[in-house]
Amino acid sequence: MPTPTIAQVFAKDGLLAKHVAGFSERTQQLEMALAIADAIENNSQLVAEAGTGTGKTFAYLVPALLSGGKVIISTGTKNLQDQLFSRDLPNVRDALKVPVTVAMLKGRANYVCHYHLARAAQEGRFASRDDAKYLHVIQTFAENSKSGDKSELNSVPENAMIWSSVTSTRDNCLGGDCPNYKECFVMEARKQALAADVVVVNHHLFFADVMLRDEGVSELLPSANTVIFDEAHQLPEVAGLFFGEDVSTSQLLELARDAEAEYITTAKDCPALQEAANALEKSVRDFRLVFAYEGSRMPVQKALALKGFDSAYTEMQAKLQALTNVLETQAPRDPALENCWQRGAGLMVQLQRWLAAENANLVRWVEVFTQSVQLHATPLSVAEGFGKQLNASPRAWIFTSATLAVKSDFSHYIGQMGLSNANTGYWESPFDYGKQALFYVPENMPEPNSPGYSAAVAAVALPVIQASGGRAFVLCTSLRAMREIHALFKEAFEQNGIEYPLMMQGESSRSELLERFRKRGNAVLVGSQSFWEGVDVRGEALSCVIIDKLPFAPPDDPVLAARIDKMNEEGKNAFMEYQLPYAVITLKQGAEIGRAHV
């Protein structure tokens, strides 16, 4: 059977129309598919924005599957990753009747680890009764699952504390020394990915492979003929994480926990190990107490000026060094102890490098969470670092999203990513928004930073939600606002006898929440960043999207502040050239959630 042309596949009576329910011919989709096919054939770069309803997923899947080469598709969210692998790829492959093998690969934290699961059961130490109950559920799942992917286990909440004890990290994975190596879910996923023609990853895993070579998939990129980034608007931020140098106190706490576990199971005759582990844990928690509250992000100068920072940081380093010294004496006894020793030595170097600030191109800043502190060193620009990857070897690079341009101008995105040689394509949505959608901006709202702003948002949103019969997403620009608005809705629903199902991000896995939202048909879901994009709710179940405020990045964000200073020093207008385009693209992304269902 001859290979069909792109035009034949997308025709009104073509292969997709015959095999995909609800498929309709769209000029924009065909044009985009032809542009992508041309980029693949010529190993070139293409930046493509396609409005909601264009069908961009099929527009890149068809030429990718017909190309005959190895393809990596990188998505912005695990939700979209699951959707691509479970629904879209099989549909297109079946329609085209091409013998293409596909695989999905996620970061190791998404797979149950047999070794750590057994150790957690042996230790029997849990943060709550729920975690003890969840452990037995996860054990049963691990015994029966082929993939070990925790997204398949909806009965355990995504944010349950137990997950950190039954999955591995880059630090504590024992690799080939693990007694469960042959049955490892991560290794099996890697084998399938290496053998597949099309591999679906996510942006974090892609950059981990590119920059760190520590996720075990370094063979993937060199063998790829085509790399496609969906939700490509996320790349500048994600790339910044991997081109920078970060260290978290949670890594130190995890090391202390693992060292104590090894004392219990392997080195009971070395009480100094437990003492050193406990001392490190205390020093880390004392360092966290230097910072006032969670959710704060501050430049290094402000952090260093905090009372007690220097002494707490020095003490933390000293206790880490003491534990590392003890671990060195015990390392020959067991691979897990050797792993702990190597991690301790590596973390010492990272703490010293962050404080020394040897790289002037990195912006140092601190992010505070409930239990931990993240020490960041982020590059002002990822353009140079990413540009090296683009030119490493001939292959096609496709960047697509519903939100990459500002008034059809891609210069902001191209400059951020170093895509000076890229072609661009812009396709408007086929929807008639003037007839199919309603846009409402409430008047007389308080200042967005005022204490009563969340209450005002909830008050004006409530009658809108009632008018739409539920069926609403409420998208918030911060986790704090999300929690406040959800609490206000809960109270208002109870007082007014409103019976729409009310959900909030974090109560369960994203996939589980979305499935419940779809099935209920009249639910209200309050979410934050991860629900601004990569969400697919077809039909009438999602008919209203409420956005709490314009998503400008906080002006006191340390990385943003440094970029603004640099641009102003260069004579540029940072607000017009950086802050405004960022807000426009982010707002467009949130609005696309609603536009997809008009």
Condensed summary:
The chain is an alpha/beta fold and 598 residues long. It has helices at residues 6-10, 15-19, 27-41, 56-66, 78-96, 114-123, 129-144, 163-166, 185-195, 203-212, 220-223, 235-243, 249-265, 271-288, 300-304, 309-330, 335-356, 383-390, 411-417, 433-436, 453-467, 479-496, 510-520, 558-569, 574-595; strands spanning 45-50, 71-75, 102-104, 198-202, 226-229, 247-248, 297-299, 362-368, 373-379, 396-401, 423-427, 472-475, 502-504, 524-527, 544-547. Helix content is 50%, strand content 11%.
Please describe what this structure looks like.
- The protein is built from 25 helices and 15 strands.
- The protein has 598 residues and is an alpha/beta fold.
- Strand 8 (362-368) and strand 9 form a beta hairpin.
- Helix 4 packs across helix 5 (78-96) and helix 13 runs antiparallel to helix 14 (271-288).
- The longest helix has 22 residues, at 309-330.
- Residues 594-598 have low confidence and may be disordered.
